[in-house]
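#struct-queue
[09:14] JT: dropping the first one here, sequence first, then the structure tokens:
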Amino acid sequence: MVRPHLPLNALRAFEASARHLSFTRAAVELCVTQAAVSHQVKVLEQRLKVTLFKRLPRGLMITAEGEALLPVVRDSFDRMAEMLERFEGGQVRQVLTVGAVGTFAVGWLLPRLPAFAARHPFIDLRLSTNNNRVDAAAEGLDLAIRFGDGAWHGTEAERLFEAPLSPLCIPAIADTLREPADLLRHTLLRSYRADEWPAWFAAAGVAAPGPLVKGVVFDSSVAMLEAATQGAGIALAPPRMFTRQLDAGVVRRPFAIGVSMGAYWLTRLKSRRPTPAMRGFREWLLETAGAETDAAGGIGTS
């Protein structure tokens, strides 16, 4: 198919004039004369056989035809600019879109991204967070980091590590706890997975009465721990994701008992062919997670 010659100068003049509603201000931006901008817009109007602007004594008024054309032109120029920005030092930057559970993104991934960027300076990583509910196809994700058992339909999943759950709370509450059963005297913050606290008490050997918890349900361990740091109660969260808060003494882990409810996985739709950027991120992520797990003495270490 032979594509017609695109009048790029005329389209640029049109876009700038529509943004400023002035040939004069568009000319200043484009470093040309007002007459040149007016001429380019006239050329475009003649080619399209429509009127794009109504010329007023003071400025311009865009027509319905101009309004229809403008978003297409803007989007096209934006996409060209974005692509040109991806070229650096003779090499194209590869875009990689990754979705991640918010807790994992904030607690583990973000502090390690500088190391990834240093290894892969030409990968333009775009990170979106979620609460473990994700539609990789609809969201256009290349890869997704999810929590669970690794069984998602149509998905290839590679295990990263477990992150067992333990009670986390502010020091003032931790000082009142002597044995696991003491937790029952406090507000126990809960996630949408109702089996977590019962599983932890079972691991601790406590015959806890039900229902154990009432009140606000959190869809993110990040939000739950923030509530805990404000003294709202005791969170059941993965200490491995909150090492900064633990090291700073903002929260404490009163009991070493942990219960595993799943693992973090790197996932890819089987229908999504791996790109060089996807392979680079996968290799770095598995290597980093594996090295840290080995150094900690095992998958279950938190």
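[09:21] JT: and here's the second one, same format:
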Amino acid sequence: MLPNPARIRFTCQPGCINCCNQKGYVYLTEADVTRAAAFLGLSSAAFEKKYIYRTQRLIRLRKPARSQCHFLQTGGCGIHPAKPTQCRTFPFWPDLLQDEDDWKATKAYCPGIGVGNFVPLEEVEKALAEMRDEEE
């Protein structure tokens, strides 16, 4: 666990898309699919056909050929108001907050970590709870 999660400074930096450019996948919940589809004016089925890869256990965004995400634009997220839970709660992911080395590795590419006012512990706990609730 980080030395003191109540002492985390984080402010997302305008125009920064470093977190979106990391290798990996964006995993979704059914609620994420519904929200993103509605934002784009698509049915959930149409959104899924175009953007989703689904297994029996997981739902994730398909990756386009030359990008990490179909919705990643130069200035940020093209579906920002309907961002998936995984994206919305970054960097307050349980695995990052539980391991100081992972937090430091994330800080190496995220210029918002260590910047700005301290994030209230309640806000960190809310993000953690949202991640846990969406995983169930």
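[09:30] RK: nice, looked through the second one.
[09:31] RK: The mean pLDDT is 89.
[09:31] JT: good to know. Helices lie at 30-40, 44-51, 85-88, 94-98, 100-109, 121-135.
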